[in-house]
Specification:
Layout (H helix, E strand, L loop, with lengths): L12 H22 L4 H12 L5 H7 L7 H10 L3 E6 L2 E9 L1 H22 L4 H18 L6
Antiparallel strand pairs: 1-2
Helix pairs in contact: 1-5, 2-5
Length: about 150
């Protein structure tokens, strides 16, 4: 998409999104630190919300983590009583993961804290633009995860 005559060309999407992603990650870190979570631990807690039972390998693939490195994260979350790992009755070598009530509570608390931080950035947009931005971002997120689109 070329710029209209008289308008400067816009930066590429990655040039705009990557710095925004870094700023959002930096804003999330104090919330995670307050609750003793790493970004990977929060990713695990968030993803298990979508699908209560997953094998460790499937979870690692879903959150784009190395399956060998995620074991320490799962060990920590399990030791803290935030998730359980049970043998899969269909394959005793595999472990099914499930959030505990405390894991759900912590995930929800952290998500609320992170979204409060995001609200500080989003409030710079008029309400209609904010709603359109979030709707558009969700659409692009779904497309990037294999949803509809090119």
């Amino acid at each position: 998409m070329n710029a209209a005559p008289g308008n400067p060309p816009r930066p590429d999407l990655a040039a705009m999104v990557v710095p925004l992603g870094r700023a959002l990650t930096a804003a999330e870190q104090p919330v995670l630190d307050t609750h003793g979570l790493t970004m990977w631990a929060y990713a695990v807690l968030s993803h298990l919300d979508e699908t209560p039972l997953r094998t460790q390998a499937a979870l690692a693939g879903a959150i784009h983590a190395d399956k060998t490195r995620i074991i320490a994260v799962l060990d920590d979350l399990e030791a803290r009583g935030l998730l359980t790992r049970e043998p899969d009755p269909a394959d005793r070598r595999a472990r099914l993961l499930s959030l505990t009530p405390e894991g759900r509570r912590l995930r929800d608390t952290v998500r609320d804290g992170i979204q409060q931080e995001e609200a500080h950035l989003l409030e710079r947009l008029p309400p209609a633009d904010r709603a359109a931005f979030l709707r558009s971002l969700r659409t692009l997120y779904e497309v990037s995860r294999g949803g509809t689109g090119r």
